[in-house]
Amino acid sequence: MLTLEQNSNASLARKAGGGDMKAAPATKAGSKASMSRMAAAASTKSTRKEPMDSAKPPKTGCWHCQGAHWLKDCLTASADDRAWAVEKMREVKEKVRAKKVTDSPSTGEVVLNGLVMLPYVADLGADTTFIPRQALATGILPADDDPFDEEDEALDLSRQEIREKLDELLVAAGQCGFSPPDMNQLHGLVMEFEDVCRVDLGADTPADIEPLNITLEEGAKPFRARSRHYAPAQRQFLREYTARPEEQGFIRRNDQTHWTCAAVPVAKPHKPGEFRMTVNYRPVNAMTVPIAGAAQEVPDSAEAAKGACGYADFDMPKGFWRLPLHPDSQEMMSFVTTDTVYTPTRVPQGASDSALHFQSQMQKIFAPMLYLNLLVWVDGILVYAKTPDEFLDALRRLFTLVQLHRLKLSVAKSGLFKTDIKWYGRVFNGVGISHDPDRISALQSLSLPVTAADLQQFLCATGWMRDTLMDFSRTMQPLLDKLEGVLSDAGRTKKLAAGVLLSWTHAEAAAFARATQYLRSSQTLHFPTQSTVLCVFSDASERGWGLVGTQVAHWNDGRPAPDQQHELLVCKSGLFDPTAQRRSIIEKKAFPIIWAALHLEYLLVRPGGFHLYCDHKNLIYVFSPVHEVKRHVRGKLQRWALSLTGLTYQIEHIDGTANVWADLLSRWRAPSEEVVGEEHQAKYRNAAPPAANRGKNGNIVVEDRIWIPSAATELLQRIMVVAHCGSQGHRGLDPMVTTIKETFEVDSLGQCCRRFLKRRLLCKHVKGGNIIPRPWGPTYNPTLRNELLPLLGGQLRRMCVSVVLKDGLSHFCELVACDSATSTVAATTLADWTKRFGPPEVLVSDQGSHFRMRPSAKCARACQLNRIWC
Hints:
Residues 247-428 form the Reverse transcriptase domain. Pfam families: RT_RNaseH, RVT_1. InterPro entries: DNA/RNA_pol_sf, Rev_trsase/Diguanyl_cyclase, RNaseH-like_sf, RNaseH_sf, RT_dom, RT_RNaseH, Viral_Replic_Matur_Polypro. The relative contact order is 0.04. The strands form eleven sheets. The protein has a five-stranded mixed β-sheet. Strands 6-11-10-7-8 form a five-stranded mixed β-sheet, covered by helices on one side. Strands 21-20-19-22-23 form a five-stranded mixed β-sheet. Helix content is 34%, strand content 18%. It is of the alpha+beta class. Helix 5 packs antiparallel against helix 6 (183-192), helix 13 packs antiparallel against helix 14 (472-490) and helix 23 (713-724) crosses helix 24. The radius of gyration is 43 Å and the shape is elongated.
């Protein structure tokens, strides 16, 4: 409950009295006695009040110049200044203040300092009365003195700000779905460890961890940076930036050091006049012997996060300033500004060993929780659990470790509970890890890069997402080629690339547009689980390769691999260089398998092994661990197969048409036919006639006839062909219109049929009972069979035979000239027809031997043709 109290003279009097005044029932005589006692006390207080000249100066100082004297004694204040200061003082005193009112203590209890509640006895029978020192010190207050101590007030305000932030985090946790019965436990847990929280970096002692000790190479000599010329705004920024760390003890002045690196204030983009502090430590880093450490990729070690009910993320305020720097390494990290040289006592950001030392120390501190309920990446901490009780226990263990090692957590950059949480550009939930949609939208909204540096930055940003994108290499290859062509001439540094302006052709601009739209196909990577069945699908073409790693939670032996319920783990792709493009087909097919064995070992090594699928049968015998390889196939593939040694796997052949997982590298998120149908219906639904309604099968009908939109040109052409080519031959206009009207409702059907017949050049025109054939050619009028072929000249003079291919539906005819009627010619013509128009359902031919011999029969079986001999 909040009450508002006006800070008037009466309230100040109550404050000075040491407590709030409460009204109690009393008799009239008692009231008069009380009034008389109060008047006597007031007169006594007025008589004891010291004169202003003998009173000590106010703690807040002069209201005009902040000096250690009263306002009336200020020598620099004019009459107007005194009037303004008095008016300001009155405004401060009259300001409305909010107070938090809690439950009052019960009878027989008293609250000490607002924290501890103790029992008390009203009358001890002693001869001496004890008065609190605070009440004695504030019993008599000068008129211009501030009743609050500045340091205590600042400390209280800092604690109050931390508690307000913690209350906001608790409210956000409840809104995100944290279990309501456990909210009280969460609140008590957070308030118990509020001392580990900070709003900003404070003058705290360094963390209780191993200090960073930098080792230099033998023969390293001290480096001294030359003085730089800074702009006035940069000089002012350096003075303001170094003032606070020096006051807190993070840096110290050291004009006797032999090492100095230059301070470089970097302007913040899109923020004029604001800078970011950096130090050029490259000369010292070049002489540093780097330390060894391990930093595992987050998606590779997040198996325990699968099925988590919620996540909490924490950040450390100025995390590098919390780590101590070894005294032997402080001098070499010194930096020079415009005024003096500073030597840091904490780990500086920018040293070659800083980030790895930070990561290794955090992994050492949180080792009991690491990869079980916690992930850490430098100064970022992610906590997760599968149940609310486990979540609270994980938070308690985290806060205990943070408090034990004197670390601090930022309440401004932390979250207590979220079901979906953004952590270092990735979104974590109970299913898997995906990339931040806001980041993807920002990349999609980029315009064409102006300089080579802009294009380089775009490719670097998208390269971080390649594990979640199908067919990444082929999509980004045009942009990589353009960047490579520019950098090969201008130079590969970012500074040189920023000075190169790009010119874009229509093809290159279209490639960039495809690349930006391609980012929306980023997939969610599921958490890998050892209890699932791991599957690896690989494929390769003439120019590139690709593979997909999936897992199946419930494997069904009765179903083929493509029909299982797969969960995506990783997808990789690449392009062959000119040397690799000259390899054989079997070597190209084997390359993604070997690549997976070398780079995806963290997924492939598991107790149950994994299933390996490829669409090349010969690889089954090369990589099969149970078959003996013959001598003539040994060589490069046999050497490559050594990479699979030590892995438990089962390699299986999968037909090319069924290898859908690898084929999806170029069309991963293609919508299904149902989705496309729904989108098309929703798009053209408003164009339907007023009398149209939805039928039983979901189609739009008009008087029991299916309505066909005018924009569905392909569907209309198919209907026209069926209506025109009937069992009675090629129909004319009226029979076509009548046939179509029986089943379909088409706008302007007569005009559509008339346009179709006018452009139909593959069949004879029929008008009434008269057949009007198409006119013959004007120049040549052959009367004998194949008379035209010798007249064509060149090689066609020897071709005296033609193969006739005719489509039974459209009556389309194709003539293939040849020198003789052989089975090879027949097989070639069938293969060419199948490549252009697809395999026909039924193949009808005469009893010619060239159609019945082995090449033609083999071609028919390969094309899956059903042959009927007449």
